Amino acid sequence: MTDLPSSLLEPLVRAALNEDLAQGGDLSSLSTIDRAAEGSAALRLRTGGVVAGTALARIAFALVDPRIELSLLIEDGEHGEHGETIMRAEGPVVSLLTAERTALNFLTHLSGIATLTAAYVAETQGTAARIAATRKTLPGLRLVQKHAVRMGGGMTHRMSLSDAVMIKDNHVAASASIADAVAKARAYAGHTVKIELEVDTLAQLEEALPAKPDIILLDNMSTDELRKAVELNSGQAILEASGGVNLDTVRAIAQTGVDVISVGALTHSAPALDIGMDLAG
């Protein structure tokens, strides 16, 4: 996670540690382990996958005890096999165990997102389609979840509501027409802001094209409809397919010729990657 500054990551880790240390410390470790005991630990993959979240894990150990020495063996964005070590940590055993769960929570969650993203990207190989995450993220974790998507080979949609104009069906319903909504958005947002418009039917697409939005989101269309949409569009706008996307359908969607496929499941439903910490003593 070298492209994200620690000043943005550290508050996330502090909040997580505060949940674990709210009552003053790791009662289990403090009551059973000599505070002077030193040891080493390995954070290992228990199943293969793409790693993400190493910077957050490093910060967790450093905040618990700056005496802990860390060595990173697998970088964010790299694929590791079952049994491989992502990171080694050496220092006071009590401190290692105190930081363990926070470090693993970030690693397993973000590596799960990166691994799922990589699976979607693999399904689109040989097509021009890109896989994108959405704003369907956990509160407070959007930045790192979107980073994990990038580590899996995907890209991001909007980071926030102010990144771009996204005219959805409710916005159109509150306007006179699709053209009216796009014209108002362009006048309000200015020339540097992209405008995306959501359509549900090919008829809406035909109505939308003369308004010249930068991006058109094709919502819950069949693959036949997507192919026709690509023909109608003829390169005028970036076409994004969304809805009904899963690992069984994504390749067929990509083969229709759309430019982007947005997948909310990347961030809201990715299973955690199995990673554990083994203490050597």
From TrEMBL:
Quinolinate phosphoribosyl transferase C-terminal domain location: 113-278
InterPro entries: Aldolase_TIM, NadC, NadC/ModD, Nicotinate_pribotase-like_C, Quinolinate_PRibosylTase_N_sf, Quinolinate_PRibosylTrfase_C, Quinolinate_PRibosylTrfase_N
Segments crossing the lipid bilayer: none
Top-level class of the enzyme under EC nomenclature: transferase
Keywords: Glycosyltransferase, Pyridine nucleotide biosynthesis, Transferase
Residues annotated for substrate binding in this entry: R101, T134, R135, K136, R158, K168, E198, D219, S242, G243, G244, V263, G264, A265
Gene3D superfamilies: Aldolase class I (3.20.20.70), Quinolinate phosphoribosyl transferase, N-terminal domain (3.90.1170.20)
Enzyme Commission number: 2.4.2.19
Protein's name according to its UniProt entry: Probable nicotinate-nucleotide pyrophosphorylase [carboxylating]
Gene from which the chain derives: nadC
